[in-house]
Amino acid sequence: MEMIRLSRISVVVGCLSTSLSLFLQGVYGQGQPYAQCGGQGWTGPTTCVAGWTCVYSNDWYSQCLQVTTTAGTTSRTTTTPRTTTSSSSRTSSSKTTTFVSSKTTTSSSRTSTTLSTTTRYTTTSAAPSATGCVIYVSTAGSDSNTGAINSPFAGIQKAVDTAKPGCTIYIRGGTYKPSKNIQVGKSGTASQRYTVAAYPGEKVIIDGDNMTGTPAALDASLDNADRGIFHIQNANYWTFKSLELINGPYGIYNRDASYNDFLDLITHDNYESGFQLEGNVAYCNVINLDSYMNRDPRKNGESADGLAIKQGRGEGNVVRGCRLWNNVDDGIDLWMFETPILIENTLAWGNGVNRWGFSPFEGDGNGFKLGGGDPDVPANHIVRNCFSFRNAVDGFTDNGNYGKLTLDHNTAWKNNGTGFDFADSPSKLTNNLASNNKATYTLGSGGSQSGNSWNIGGTWNDARFISTDTSLVTGPRDSNNMIPASNFLLLADGTTTGATTHM
Ligand SMILES: *[C@@H]1O[C@H](CO)[C@@H](O)[C@H](O)[C@H]1NC(C)=O
Ligand SMILES: *[C@@H]1O[C@H](CO)[C@@H](O)[C@H](O)[C@H]1NC(C)=O
Questions:
Q1: Ligand 2 pocket, 353 CB below 6 A?
Q2: What would the pLDDT profile of 371-409 be if each residue is shown by its tens digit?
Q3: Which residues contact 235 (CB under 8 A, 6 or more apart)?
Q4: How many CB atoms lie within 10 A of CB 101?
Q5: Which residues carry out catalysis?
Q6: Residue 453 Cα, ligand 1 centroid: separation in angstroms?
Q7: What is the rounded average pLDDT of the residues 417-429?
Q8: Of 177, 179, 229, which is best to mutate to test ligand 1, by the most ligand atoms within 8 angstroms of its C-beta?
Q9: Whole-structure pTM over 0.90, yes or no?
Q10: What is the DSSP track for 82-101?
C-alpha cells in the first residue's frame, strides 16, 4: 500500500513546478481532511494537516477529522485508539454509541444528537473471514451438491438458504443469471455475521435480466418481494462484498434490515435504483459503491437513483467512498429519510440526463439530493469531502429538508443548477467550493457559512485548478478499490477549500 501511495505522490510532483511540488510533498506527508490515517494494514500517513486530528473509527479505519468543541456536537479530541479488542468493536453496543461518547464523555446528553462516525468494518482491507463455515457457489455447480469447494452449489439462493449464522458464501467467478431474485430474510448476530462475497480475486456478475420487473411496464407497480437482485428484508448482520449487480429490478434492495455492510459493490443498468435502503435501517455501511446508468422505464426516470436511502429512519448509517453517475434521477437521494446520515469521500456526476429517450422525462438530476418529502421531514445529514459535477440540476440540495445539515469541504463544479442549494434549511456550510455552476448557493434563514469560495471572494474559474480532467476520478479504482488520489479540482495555490481525492 505504501508503494502505491508513494508512486502516486511521485506522479503528482512530477507534473508540478518545483516550489509547488515541495509544498505538496509536505502536505501529503500528513493526512488531508477526512483522509484515512490508520487502521490494520495501513501504511500511509498517520498524522493529519494542521487543525485536523487522527481519530480512531474502527480497527480498520482511522480518519483525519477536525477538532470541534461546539456544545452538543461532536468533540473529537483524541488520537488514541480505543483499547478494546477487535471483537468488541463489532458488538452491537459499540455500534449504538459514537466514538466520542464511548471515548471522551460519559454524559448521556452528548449521545443524543451526535452523528456516529463509529462504524464497523468499513474498509476494503477487511476481507471477509473464511474460517469456519464456508459455502461455495459456482456456475458449474449443482444444488444437489454439498456446497463444499469441490462440490459447489449452482444457486446463490440455495447457499443463502443453507447458510447458518457465521457462514461465508463464496461465489466463484462468472456471470449468474437467476430467473428469480434472491431473498435474504434471516439474521446473523454481531459476532456471527453472514457474508456473501466474490471468491477473492474472482469477478462475479449477477445479471437480473430474467427476473420479474426488468422492466415493468410504464406505470405498473413492482411487488415489494420482487425488488432487488438481492431482496434483503428483516435480515440483520449481513456483509455483501465485491459483487456486480446488473439489469435487475433494483440491484440491492435492503428494507427493514440493519447492521449490514455493503463493500465494493457495483450496481448498474438496473431498472430502478442501483442500491436502496428503506424503512427501519440502522448502522448500515455503504462503502466504495460504484452505481451508474440505473433507470426506471416504468416511471420515465422519476425514481432510479445511484444510491437511494429513502422513506425510513435509523441511526448510524454511513456512505463512504462511493461514485454515483449517469443515473436517470439523482446521484444520491435521501427523500423522506428522517435520521442523520454521514456521507463522505463520495462523488456524483452526470445524473438526470435523459439517455433513454423517456417521454415525458421525469428525472430530477441532483448530484446530492439530501431530503425532501411529502410532507418534508427534517434530518441533520452531514456531507463532507464530496464532489458533485456536471449534474443536470443542483450539486448539493436540501430539497426541502428543513433540518440543520452540515456541509464541509465539498466541491460543486459545472452543475446546471445551483452548486449548494440550501434555501429551505438553517444549514451550516463551511469550506465548500462552488465553481462554474449556473448559480452558486442559497441558504435559509438561521443558517451559517464561513470559508466557502463565495465567502472568500474572487474568481473561481478553471484556471484556479491544477487539473479539471474528469478522467482522473471517473476511471478505474486502484488495487485497494479506492478512487485514485489525483490533482482533480485541487487549487493551484495550495489552499484547501473544497474536496480532495487524497483520502
Ligand atoms: C431467461 O428466461 C427465458 C424465458 O423465461 C428462458 O427461456 C431462459 O432460459 C432464461 N435464461 C436463463 C439464463 O435462465
Ligand atoms: C447543461 O446545460 C448545457 C447547456 O444547455 C447542456 O449542453 C448540457 O447537456 C447540460 N448538462 C446536463 C448534465 O444536463
A1: yes
A2: 999 999 999 999 999 999 999 999 999 999 999 999 999
A3: 184, 185, 186, 187, 257, 260
A4: 21
A5: 369
A6: 55
A7: 98
A8: 179
A9: no
A10: P---TTGGGSHHHHTS-HHH
